[in-house]
Structures are given as structure tokens and as C-alpha cells.
Design brief:
about 400 residues; single chain
Length: about 400
Amino acid sequence: MPPTAPPVTRRPRRAGPAARRPYDGTRDRLTKSLRRAAPALAGYVAVRVLGVLVLGHWAHLKGHGLWPALATSWDSRWYLEIADSGYDSTLGTARNSNNLAFFPLYPVIVKAVAGVTPGSRASVGVLLAVAFSLVAAWGIFAVGDRLYGRRVGTLLAVLWGCMPVAVVQWMGYTESLFTALTAWSLYAVLAGRWLWAGPLATLAGLTRPTGIAVGAAVSVAAAVALWRSWRGGRGLRPAVLAAGLIAPLGWFGYVAWVGLRLGRWDGYLAVQKLWLNEWDGGADTLREIRRFLLYQSKPQLFLVVVTLVLFLSVALFLLCAAERLPLPLLVFTGVLLLVVLGSGGVYFPRARFLIPGFPLLLPLALAVARARRLTGALVMGGTALASMWFGAYMQLIWPGPP
């Protein structure tokens, strides 16, 4: 008799949750996080859609088009030019004409996406801004939810959509992309996910000049975490060290690249000088405020609102410090305010420059959350209506850029 072959042992096939692929856990966490943020995203979208409808109706009454106002106005044209033709290779002498002042990540993304999708680059730029704004609102909710709960997170995201110049969030500008990277980088620090915090901060540094504020926040937080780890006898934490080192590289990398392109170490500073934008410690800002408040009998409404935003931002930062917000949020908002208030140059875009400073809205979100529901509803409704009207005013009445 031939020997009997041993029975074939088959490995049982796993079914149900145990059969999931390794990445399913991450996908489930994202799905759960998105569901938790759904009310915040719905509120944000409602505010911004209504704002666009108000702008569109007002533009129709004045005989203007809505899409050009969102896609091809002011700075949008600079980013589209970079996406089309690249950067200048010389410094030149003309004022306000060198596109090296604009950081590269947004136009690079616009060019890449437009290359594989139908439609113009201008249309792609606006659609990307809308998509980035949703990611930003999600990240803002995540920060508020982690610190104070779902209600505060929701209010924080909606308040971000109700800022006076929030219409820019759905224009071909960089504010939405920058805020998305900032919010999730700060959230990653709060959650201890350092391998995410550093790269996101690096990308933020490639998006706007104020990206240095995100790099500073992550690096300072990493330094404090390393110090506490060393004091606690836990030794070096490589992920924390890596995050702290790479966080500011995006900003410094672009500044260094501009210097190499122009053949001078201070190339980026020279470009900013052509745009009349130099650090002066806030002297120019104070002069402009004094001129508007003391020497103009009928100051323009837009500039009055910008001035009020600056005062309110400083007051909110002090409240954030009194509330003892986590160090990364305080460092980010503090450096952001130093850059915005301490630089000279044009005064009118200062409110737009502060759009990414969403942690400054936390004291307002907390106050609304603690108020009676009717009071909170009236505050949020009034803020949303004011933002809708002012966004249309800024686009159709104010003669300059946002």
C-alpha cells in the first residue's frame, strides 16, 4: 500500500472585522472623525453658501459677474501667472511687480490639478480653495473639539466662516490652504502625532509668508516636549526631534531659494522691499491707525473694519493667554500677530492676513457656548449676516484688493 498523503492543512480565512486590511483602521478613524465634524461642516458651508449668494445677487444688480470676482481678481491673477509661466528670474526695480513675493505651494497644486482635469486654471483654483476651506473647517473643529468639546468645536468652525473677510476663503487665494495645513499641524501637536505635525508645518511654510508662525509653534512645542522628556528620564524622542527640526524648513527653504535665484543672500528681503513690505516693529501700523482714527473725518468703512479687526485680535490674544490655551496655539497666534502688525507696507489686507489665526476665536466660541441658546443664536446669526454683507461690500464697493 502506498503511504497515505498527509492531509492538507488550510489556513482558515478570516471574515468580518478581523479580515480588514491594515489601513482600514485609519479609514474608520477618519470616517468617525468626519461624522463627528458633520454639524460643524454643515454650519460652515451654510454660512459660506449664503455669503456667495448675497455676493452673486449684489453683483448681478451692479452688472458684474460673480465668477471673475472669485477666480481672477487681484492676487488670484498673480498665482495664476505663476502657475502659467513660473517665477521671475531677476529682481527688477518696479514697485509691486515681482512675483517672487508669492509662495509656491498653491500655484504648484493649481497647475498640477489643472493638468489632469478639465476647465481653466482659474476655475480649478477656486474649486481647490473651496475644498481646502472644508479641510480647514474640519481641522478647526478638531482643535476646538479636542480642547473643549463638540459644541465649542462646531462654533469655532462656524465663526471662522463668519469672519469679516471670510469671502476670501472661497476665492483663488491661499488663505484656505494655509489654514487647513495650520489647523491640522496644530491638532497633530496637541494629539502628540509629531510625524504629521512637522511635515504639515513644512507645507504651511511653503504657502504664505506667515508660515513661519506655524513652524515656530511646532518647533517650540517640540523643544518643550523634549525638555520634559529629558527631565522625566525618558531620553530622546526621535519623532519629536524630527518634527521640531523640519517644521520651519518650508519657509526657510523658499526664502533661500529666492536668494539663490536672484544671486544675493537677501533676495527675498529685497523682493519684499519692492512691495514696500519691511519689518518696522509696528511703527507703520500705528501711524495708519492714528491717521484713520484721528485725522480723517470720514474714513472708509473697509479700513475702519480692518482697524477694528486688529484691535479685536490683540484683545482676543490676551484672552487666549488668560484662558491658558496650549502653548502651540499661543506661539502660533503670537508670531502671526507680530508678523502682521509689525510689518510695514499696505494696511488694508491686514484683516485677510489674520484669517488663519482661528485660535483667536476660541474665547468667542467659549462665550457663545456658555451663553443661553437664544443669546448664542442671535450672536451667531448677527455675525453671519454681517460677514455676508461685508464680503459683498468688499468685493463690489471697496476699490482695492481684500
